[in-house]
Design a protein that fits this description.
- With 444 residues, this protein is α/β, with parallel strands linked by helices.
- The protein folds into three domains: 134 residues, Rossmann fold (3-Layer(aba) Sandwich); 239 residues, pyruvate-formate lyase- activating enzyme (Alpha-Beta Horseshoe), CATH 3.80.30.20; 55 residues, Nucleic acid-binding proteins (OB fold (Dihydrolipoamide Acetyltransferase, E2P), Beta Barrel).
- Helices cover 36% and strands 22% of the residues.
- The protein has 14 helices and 19 strands.
- Strands 2-1-3-4-5-6 form a six-stranded parallel beta sheet, sandwiched between helices. Strands 15-16-17-19-18 form a five-stranded mixed barrel.
- The chain is globular, with a radius of gyration of 23 Å.
- The relative contact order is 0.08.
- About 1% of the residues have low confidence.
């Protein structure tokens, strides 16, 4: 007898690892008869997979819960029901406080416990048992997940490492995701082979500190093994820490054509004083020399980074040092944020908290410089022929959308049969966020 279909809505906040976790939640709930819906008001189960990195992100979750509560009450009045679950890092960090603040929440599930969702939901429906599940070891989580994934496109995320041991003073990850833990090589390879057999051409390896991957051979060794999987033509990884960017990984960038020439390597600040206060384990000079080594090995590599402005104690001279570092590196893309206090982190109690208006002014200046660099990098591609992996149809009839090796969105006209193929495209125009081009030739 078939399992009756129930509707599942998942809203994902934050990083790519949460996107991966959301996909796996759908996998573990599938055998219970849950099928995805794009409408929360139509769902029997609503899961908010949350991020705790910035304060505003946390408040957005509570605001969203207010809307979901109203939907739940409306369904109950109509004779139906809705289960609300909060998952992810807010769940891990705030636990029972979530249900105290919003009693409409039925389940709180930390990032290491979502494999327990089927059991917890069954308990909820029986109106008994625990409602809070936040403390499970990472290996237990992966051991409990279905071995088969069902990708929805030609690219996929693949978690290889979780947690962080760096304890940057602004960051909650060591407290919400725990210490560094690496999945065994063979389980990663088995998952990657399955993805490739289902048409995935590109994987992005995920970890809070992915280049700290501690399996046999480290991240470089893993990349070399993945590069031997038939059909898997592109490998990316994020997010990296400069302290764990070893020579073996740099050499892999030089030697593996499957390893894309795009590296996200967060620096956070160009001021040694601020980097020390952040407990970043590198200074501006060591970061710049590292970038030099990487570019010597792979001259065409595109650099991406993260920046925080307004960290406690940041003076004008410290911010100017950040601008100077940005000018010296030259970024193809970057993410920049105002410092936000996170409860329980050392930085939250540091003296010298920077005024919001000063943060705003500094962020605007930094973004202007980063935007200028991104536009310049994109314009430098005009006239070149780039291999583009087409992922989907574009917004306009007859248009395709894909990604360059440098992670730029590329649009051009072409038939849908090219989706999933890597095709040479001559770049004809560039904007801040994308490139436009024409097929060099239409493959048979």
């Amino acid at each position: 007898m078939s399992v009756p279909t129930k509707r599942l809505f998942i809203k994902t906040y934050g990083c790519q690892m949460n996107v991966y976790d959301s996909e796996r939640m759908a996998d573990v709930l599938g055998p219970l008869g849950y099928a995805m819906t794009e409408r929360p008001d139509d769902a029997d189960l609503v899961v908010l997979n949350t991020c705790h990195i910035r304060e505003k992100a946390t408040e957005k979750v509570y605001s969203e819960l207010g809307y979901i509560k109203a939907m739940k009450l409306a369904r109950r009045a109509a004779g139906g029901d809705m289960v609300i679950a909060v998952a992810g890092c807010v769940a891990q960090a705030e636990g029972e406080q979530i249900m105290l603040r919003q009693p409409a929440v039925d389940l709180v599930v930390g990032p290491q416990a979502y494999h327990q969702l089927p059991e917890l939901i069954a308990r909820t429906h029986r109106a008994r048992g625990e409602r809070l599940a936040a403390d499970f070891a990472a290996d237990e989580k992966f051991d409990a997940l279905p071995t088969e994934r069902h990708p929805t496109g030609v690219t996929a995320f693949l978690t290889v490492q979780e947690g962080c041991d760096k304890f940057c003073t602004f960051c909650v990850v060591p407290y919400t995701r725990g210490g560094e833990w690496s999945r065994p090589v063979e389980t990663i390879l088995a998952e990657a082979r399955s993805l490739a057999e289902q048409g995935v051409r590109e994987v992005t390896l995920l970890g809070q500190n992915v280049n700290a991957y501690a399996g046999e051979g480290g991240l470089a060794g893993l990349a070399r093994k993945l590069a031997r999987i038939e059909g898997l033509d592109r490998i990316r990884y994020t997010t990296s820490h400069p302290a764990d960017m070893d020579q073996a990984l740099i050499d892999a960038h030089a030697e593996l054509p499957q390893l894309m020439p795009y590296l996200h390597l967060p620096v956070q600040s160009g001021s040694d004083k601020i980097l020390k206060a952040m407990n970043r384990a590198h200074n501006a000079e060591s970061y710049l020399r590292l970038v030099e080594k990487i570019r010597a090995a792979r001259p065409d590599i595109a650099m991406s980074g993260d920046f925080i402005v307004g960290f406690p104690g940041e003076r004008d001279v410290d911010f100017e040092a950040t601008l100077s570092l940005v000018r010296e590196v030259g970024y193809a893309a970057a993410f920049s944020f105002k410092y936000s206090r996170r409860p329980g982190t050392p930085a939250a109690a540091m003296p010298g908290q920077v005024a919001e208006e000063v943060k705003d002014e500094r962020l605007a200046r930094l973004n202007a410089l980063l935007d200028e660099q991104q536009k310049a990098f994109n314009l430098s591609q005009v006239g070149k022929v780039l291999p583009v992996l087409f992922e989907r149809s574009g917004r306009h009839p007859g248009q395709l959308s894909g990604r360059s090796p440098y992670l730029q969105a590329v649009h051009c006209d072409g038939p849908d049969r090219l989706i999933g193929k890597i095709v040479p495209v001559r770049i004809e125009a560039a904007a801040k966020m994308s490139l436009a081009g024409a097929l060099e030739q239409v493959p048979a």
